[in-house]
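Weekly structure sync, notes
Attendees: PL (lead), two postdocs, one rotation student
Agenda item 3: pending single-chain targets
PL asked that the sequence for the first pending target be pasted directly into the notes so everyone works from the same version. It is reproduced below exactly as submitted, 199 residues in total.
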Amino acid sequence: MRFAVALHNIRSIHNVGSIFRTADAAGAERIYLCGITPAPLDRFGALRPDFAKVALGAQDYVAWESAKSSTAVLKRLRRDGWRIFAVEQSSRATPYFKIPARETRAGKFCLVMGAEVRGLPPSVLALADRVLEIPMSGKKESLNVAVAFGVVAFGLRRPSPRPRAAAPLPHSDATTRRLGEHPSRRGGRSGMVGWKHRR
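Predicted structure, written out during the meeting:
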């Protein structure tokens, strides 16, 4: 699975720093800072202290670039074979956990997050292959954008099914195996001794 992140007009540098940190933990390979979204570095090329306090160095491990237009970035990604997943409340939205795993495991996708208040505009949603939402139970029906990103990023990062673990041994045999003893030598010295199960 390969995934990137596009941030559309996010104002808070604290939110951007938090998203960088989470993106690194989730395995994102690049973050596109679109529109007015602030970058980790100021105009003099120095690391912004308020960003650094939240990101904790994540900008050194996730590639990033600034872009004036979100739609231009997304069109370029689509031409390069990336699927666009926009996170937004919409009539065409699908709960993020209902996306088939095959859509994320085998390909590459870009997760698009919108501005704190206005979210994503129609021009961005029109480029999305899927619009994803986080079902909510509260009255506010709203999450901080950095929190929402973490929920969806890790939700889509579902691991391949693993073989079921073997059932635990009966208590007496489990104790014997832990000590490395032969069943007939209970109470004797411990060591890496080969043995057969009792019948």
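Discussion points:
- Residues 160-164, 171-199 have pLDDT under 50 and may be disordered.
- The longest helix spans residues 13-26.
Action: rotation student to compare against the earlier draft before next sync.
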